[in-house]
Amino acid sequence: MSEEKKLSGTEIIKMASHGLRGTLKESLSDEITGSVREDDKSLIKFHGMYEQDNRDLREERAAKKLDRLISFMVRMRIPGGLLRPDQWVAIHHIAGKYSTGTIKITTRQTIQLHGILKSSIKPTLQSFNKVQLDSISACGDVNRNVICSSNPNINPLHRQIHSLAAEISKMMMPKTRAYYEIWLDEEKISEDTEPDPLYQDRYLPRKFKIGIGIPPNNDVDVLANDLGLIAIIENGALSGFNIAVGGALSSTHGNPDTYPRLATVLGFVAGKDNLFKAIYEVASIQRDFGNRSDRKLARIKYTLDRMGIEAFKTELEKRCGFKLEKERPYKFNSRKDMYGWLQDHDGNWHFTLFIENGRVLDDENLALKTALLEIAETGKANFRFTSNQNLIVSDIKDEDKELVESLLNKYHLVNHTASASGLRKNAIACVALPTCPLAFAEAQRYMPDLITKMEVLLSKHDLMQEEILTRMTGCPNGCARPYAAEIGLIGTSPGRYNLHIGGDREGTRINQKYKEQLDEKAILEEVDLLFGKYATERLEKETFGDFTKRKILDNNI
Ligand code: SRM
Ligand code: SF4
Questions:
Q1: Is 189 part of a structural domain of the chain?
Q2: Structure pTM?
């Protein structure tokens, strides 16, 4: 077990929380402040929420001697990112009534609503509950939203594999009834805390993420997860999963002990019972061996590297009571979303819609939110989120395609998707300002403009057809997975970014820092030089990431 050093403050809060209840009920009924009590700020995350404030307003409010305007972000638990149309309709109205109105599709196939006042949290969660949705353990030191390759067209077995996301999510949920009591007014049956064999009273040392990848598409960045499950399909049947442990993409500026890491494949598991046992026991090892004194070093990637891969695997096999088989061959060839119309193996239709940085709102150019509401109201399409922050209007029967297509066209969404450049359609940015308290620089509000300027350079070098993966974050926490991009821009201070290059297109290589602290002018100068070299010196079919790795980073100039 892990050496017991001084426990971090969060550990003490979790243990004293009586099954994540803390004093949340008291915090909620305190009308003097829009905030929750200090310890409850940690606990509320396990219920899918973060306390925030709008950073744009801080200065103005401080000048008027006003406190920060506190509100909450709610992140939902939507395993595999699949919603029924009536659920989308509900979210549309809830967003309009209680939040800023913008629906944000995240990099983990779910949605966030921002700007919810304390008094509106309960009505928000109760409205979600009416359509069988919740935000349980969407954040906190537990298993988060389970993601799965989103496009049903990938493989005839997609439905079967995708359904595992919901089952895994259910198995990994904490056993406490706290969410139901605090937010949904369920009566407390007993004073005892519910026994929870997996999480016990300390939960995990840190967040834990599970992703399911269905080759050949790695749209979920499966190796960026604490636990990545790679579906192995042989002779048209699902044989089982390669199990990969230790992915996570954050680092901290100036802290060399932290690093982004892709998961290591430990072996192969066949059969659902063994798969679920292995998932459970990977988490139990992290529970018992993870670092509980330094949260910066608490993810399973550090546990794995500290224990050593073989020792970790031996412990896993001991706990599972069976040996992992040798990993089976698989190949990823892309991480992009399959934009436009596709028909799956059952004859249903799916339209993958480009949503810039996952922000669903109506603006002067596009009535996106209205369009999606109208489509959902027909009841003829499900909504699937992708880990690239896009949306698949999906599962449309052949006879309903015309109706859905007419709405997509009415609101210009087909053209919006078709006309966006390859660079833009393969770019992701995290939320950053104004709500993220950790942001040093802009991301989703700035990236569209930067892409426009980069498009000019692509065009100059005759590279407009290229689909280069570009990802931007406002800090090194890596929420848009910039360390796994061909071009990664990582915020260091207002208006400045580190430039990373050399990631591959399949998501199997971490990129490297190339230049530090660049402002926009310097970013564009560097990108211009790199595009110029790429246009003239690349090998046939060589991607930008492979080229920059070979020619620039490996110093083969
Ligand atoms: Fe993240 C913290 C947003 C995916 C690594 N992330 C945050 C917070 C909650 C800031 C905070 O702690 O107060 C951000 C909220 C901003 C806001 O105002 O909404 C935030 N993360 C996001 C989202 C919404 C980005 C987006 O624009 O889509 C993504 C929500 C995913 C979801 O639905 O669950 C999001 N975050 C990720 C990913 C990508 C992934 O999981 O595939 C990563 C990198 C992978 C990983 O986990 O290593 C990621 N977020 C972090 C970290 C660094 C964790 C670490 O190991 O150190 C933090 C900071 C922390 O936990 O202390 C963080
Ligand atoms: Fe906030 Fe940093 Fe995550 Fe962006 S990467 S959302 S700035 S924590």
A1: no
A2: 0.98
